[in-house]
Write the structure tokens for this entry.
Amino acid sequence: MSEDKFDLVVIGAGPGGYVAAIRAAQLGLNVACVDKRGEPGGTCLNVGCMPSKALLHASELYEEANHGMAQFGVKIDKVGLDLKTMMGHKEKVVSDLTGGVRFLLKKNKVEYIEGAATLKDATTVDVALNKGGERQLKTQYVMIATGSEVASLPGVEIDEKQVVSSTGALSLPKVPKHMVVIGGGVIGLEMGSVWSRLGAEVTVVEFMDRITPEMDGEVSKQFQRILAKQGITFKTSTKVTEVKKTKTAVTLTVEPAKGGDAEKIKCDVVLVSVGRKPHTAGLGLENVGVVLDERGRIETDAHFRTNVAGIYAIGDVIKGPMLAHKAEDEGMACAEIIAGYAGHVNYDAIPGVIYTMPEVAAVGKTEEQLKADNVDYSVGKFPFSANSRAKANAATEGFVKILSCNKTDKVLGAHIIGANAGNMIAELALAIECGIAAEDIALTSHAHPTEMEAVREAALATDKRAIHA
Ligand code: FAD
Ligand code: NAI
């Protein structure tokens, strides 16, 4: 076995790990980054954010061509679906992006090693190389960035054909007639939207009384109404008690979450999207005594330190939202801390976006959280139906909602449901990061005609002085 010496070994080349490796190398450390997947980019680039966004965009174009363009006087006689080409586009997006990460690692002189890493002790990482053989890496620091993996339900076996996770749902060979989605969260609604637009009947079974239960209640109610209008069927407050497969169909038994009469639903594909769990198997944490929390995540302090000196952890494998940009932020901050600088992540200012049509975006507190914390706050809301650009684009569904503090006028939370919500939320994330007041947004010139004017109007509305509503 060959032995190599590094300052830092990063385990996992997802958005957390590869960004951390590059930042540490920029700061002068000799860095190796190990990933067993082969291609770098982690869940995000290979089977997560990017392939799902490629399919969301493509299926949105198909939906627009079918139903959205006639109102603008654009006539299309025959719209056809070429699923193979659509999947080919998605695969090219993935390979271009993972190739880009390889290039960036090389450019920054990070050694990228394809293989499965196991901690032998706090300063030794054994790698079973994908191409065969082993390497032993000696290092001063280790950063664990091994991400997360699909969670399933007891008794439900994911075969990635009839019962699929998000990974299988990204590569179905044909459009299902009927897809049942278990879990009305982010993955279920994004992938459910893709297949619904491409022609599948989609039924979402959600255990809680509303979809995306963590979101601001007003937003999630409107979101559900809009998706239902698009043709998705929702069964909320419902639990799945059995999933039975035959060669040609899957039958689910569902019943009210609080108990009651059972019902059978027959479909050809089931998507299980009930959350993800931290990926720690095979890492050898037991060899070094790294402590996990009650949900199996690696326990860290505010500086990403585990209980073992020299071993750090970031991204989906530790607490906090499972988001690519949160993993990146932590990766950069952790690399800076290891290199002797002051890295920091502001968890109050991390946006979350659901890339459906319309998109849903949020940053900071929900109304429910502010009420629970007894905060004295104002609500400023502005509908896109009163925004001139949204009218011109015939994209008037949704609203901007800003929550501001009645004592300081600072923005505490913002929630947008609308066509470009994912881009629009950036201004409000910056507002929270910089402690900006709603009045500052209201005083800032916003170009006309843009959807961003709805943000300014919502800021004005926190002081009951919106102009166009
Ligand atoms: P990961 O990206 O999971 O990377 C961890 C890597 O570690 C993996 O490549 C794995 O192979 C490797 N690894 C694990 N164990 C070992 C080992 N022992 N040795 C070597 N390598 C190992 N987030 C967003 O912000 N926006 C989105 O639009 C979005 N869309 C998503 C869509 C889907 C379908 C899914 C599933 C997720 C999506 N996410 C999205 C979440 C996002 O992908 C994750 O939050 C993000 O990838 C976490 O980054 P990470 O670096 O912590 O871990
Ligand atoms: P999720 O946590 O978003 O949603 C899971 C849903 O399943 C919840 O609504 C929950 O109430 C429900 N549920 C749980 N158990 C259930 C049961 N037994 N029966 C019925 N419903 C049940 O998890 P999801 O959608 O699997 O996504 C995993 C992670 O991936 C998320 O945490 C998210 O952060 C990340 N992700 C982010 C995306 C984005 O940023 N656009 C896109 C896709 C994933």
Observations:
- The first strand starts at residue 2 and ends at 11.
- Residues 163-274 form a domain with the FAD/NAD(P)-binding domain fold (CATH 3.50.50.60).
